[in-house]
Design a protein that fits this description.
alpha+beta, Alpha-Beta Plaits, 25% helix
């Protein structure tokens, strides 16, 4: 029998992070570094990423807010593990240290 604590540690949710840039001159390199720092991440569209994280979506949103232009839009949501794609190669990059 698996304990609840062990299940929480081994099951890390997938989050979808999407942002809409409203400034052509803003430098988004710090945002991209932040997203690539997740142990598993995948940039599936130009401004949409999948990451594995146990963090609250509101905490991630707040961290991203500090890295983007004040007029940019941000969406962070938790996925249930089911999705379908077309013309998207889904490969998670690992930044495990």
């Amino acid at each position: 029998m698996t304990s609840m604590k062990a299940m929480e540690v081994t099951h890390v949710p997938v989050l979808i992070i999407s942002y809409e840039t409203k400034s052509d001159s803003f430098d988004y390199s710090k945002l991209h570094e932040f997203l690539r720092d997740y142990s598993l991440c995948s940039q599936i569209l130009e401004s949409t990423w999948l990451v594995r994280s146990a963090e609250k979506t509101s905490d991630i949103r707040d961290q991203i807010e500090a890295l983007v232009h004040p007029s940019d839009s941000i969406f962070v949501g938790r996925l249930d593990g089911r999705w379908d794609t077309q013309n998207i190669e889904l490969e998670f990059e690992s930044s495990a240290q």
